[in-house]
Amino acid sequence: MLPNNVFRCRPWLPLATLAFSGALLAQSVEPARPWWSPGEDTPLPATLEYANGWGRFGLVNADGPVTTDGHPFFEALGSNGRGCVTCHQPADAMSISVATIARRWQETEGKDPLFAAIDGRNCPHLPAGDAAAHSLLLKRGLIRVSLPWPPRDSSGTAITPGFSIEVVRDPSGCNTHPEYGLDGERHEISVYRRPRSAINLRYVTAAGFGVTPFIGKTGMLAAKDPETGKPVNMNMMADAREATLKTQANSAANGHMQVVTPLSAEQLARIQAFELQLYGAQSWSNGAGSLVETGGPSGFGPRNLRAGRDGVLGNNTSNYVFPMEDKWANLPEVEGADAMARRAFRESVQRGHDVFFYRTFWIKDATHINTVGLGNPIKRTCATCHGMHMTGMDVANGWMDLGTTNAPWALEPPESPWAKELPELPLFKLTCNADQPPHPFLGRTVYTQDPGRALISGKCEDIGAIVIQQFRGLAARAPYFSNGSAANLRELVDFYDRRFNIRYTEQEKADLVNFLSVL
Amino acid sequence: MKHWMRAVIGLGFLASLSAVAAPPPGTRLSFVSCPVVRDTRSVPCWTSDYQGDSYYLTIQSDVSAAVQPPLLGHRVLVEGIVSDKPQICGGIVLEPVRLSVMPELDANCNTVLPVDERYVIDFNPRPPGPSGGRLAFDPAPGATSAPPAPPVGEQQLPIYFDFDRAVSFRHPDVLLNIIKVAGQVKATRLKITGVRGAHKLSDGTLLQESTTIGRKRAEEVAALLKGAGLTLDAELDWTDAVAEADGVDDWQSRRATVVLTP
Question: Shortest Cα distance from B223 to chain A (angstroms)?
């Protein structure tokens, strides 16, 4: 595609208006989705679809139907009744939406294992059955993640951090609690994060482009697979603390499921095998229609993910991040309101793709993108950071500080005498040691809701750096960002518009939202 | 305004011009200043002002560039030789040029200039959006070059750093090469010497790195090589090269030296 034909906004108004209307019409009331409890013996078919507000989300089990009876992903493994599936619901793109969480709360009066005290409450010491004690999960879909402080390396040795942490705000009381707090018996810090989508993990864990013994963004040592000794891409969790699917499963079993005995080698192997053959993407769009039709864009639908190449850089016109082959550009004229609306929506999706891929803006003050030899600022596009072919993650070692958790960009309710909404996330003040390099753009004192990668590396430059998530199944799993601060796709786009002063037009925003809704 | 006043002002202006006339080609410059970004119709270019002149530093491309752009929000240490090439983006070309971002923040360094049609980038290794599929400065497809002869005997491998910094994004390939060479020469001894450097700037200022940086470089390189699988026990040393700063390639003082002995 040539740069001079990439923006397809039509000069006449009616179609543009239709496309924008399409954005509104394409999202319906969120349908109730089936809840999957651990221990259900229902088989998971080879292919299946679940309705969501934007259409339908599709799953493909590449190895065929999965017998869930006795499968460690689908069984309650721990003492609190949870299984992996509790927070990785098939209908929610193998994550869990806040709508599903709220419904589950109502259906079970807060007694589902999802709401376990250990991390389903804002802090374990808070009272059971009180919605306020679960507010971060109920309102933002956030699970408490408690991490040791100071951090420890993979051998368990304490790392001397390059900064100190003060608790500035502690709405849950957890970070100042005598047992759970930073200075408490456990010496832990509590941050609150969204469960990540457990689909397309062949891509997420691929050791392709940019995976070496050293982290490309910092020169530090990359994590290694404890079984093979080989470096991994460190792209799986918000802070990249677990190296492989198996170590992640073990960690989640210990922490979130409170297992009494560690998972067996066979259980871990079954979980890994299941996750690596599972593909997911939106398969039907209320606005665009089928996303899996023969001859459609090759970047859409779960089957194309199954067939695609992993570990590939897509920020180029050889691979593309989400290839569309211009198939929804300049569509032929159609008759009838439904057909016209569908055509308009498809053209909006194509324009949204082009905004994502070609629309330049200044990417400024984003650690681990501006600091890796590209300069600050760089005039680039969304695809610069979201460059992994088929997923929109960063390709390797994909953490960046895009401002989602660090002041001044992180979403905070306005503070005023008349404020009706009070902050619910903690706020930490991190002060970099004098003998350490400061955070590249925030200096030696950083305020943050979640220090992100820095809680693992102990380095100032990593404060607020969060591993980029994949873009698949977005329609099924709001809210977005690791701290759930974007309630819907429009808020996600608006965050970037504010953060980088992009000044998208309303049309561009609507097109981007429509594009994201079909992934 | 009286004629004589205009004349005085005019003479003063000419005098000021002559006082800040650009240094002739071949002049070595070393200065610390704010970088400036100038947008163009294609990729932005980077300049920096020093003693009344604007110097072209580089353009935006990608991670394969030999000269990578600095960071707004920080001053940049510039070392280069004035060339006689036509100006780029309104800046006198320094060639070669070496840039190092100063670690601490400087809020004054925040200038982004808009597109000015007088400044056109007529070389474009990579557009501002997606690439064509390869890094800007990678060899062209099909290009071949003879592989270097395998190293023999003792090897001294320098690692160069940014000012007051140890290992960074610049070093994965450098470290991987050391591990490779260690295998090629069947090294039995590894010595790493970290060096604290300094710069003699063009205005006579001596710019020194922190006193502990040499040790930090040696220890960090040793830990990373060991962590990546180089099993030799490293002998560590650190030294101070501040006294050697003379304004000529002082960037080479910001280094560690790895010696591999068969």
Answer: 9
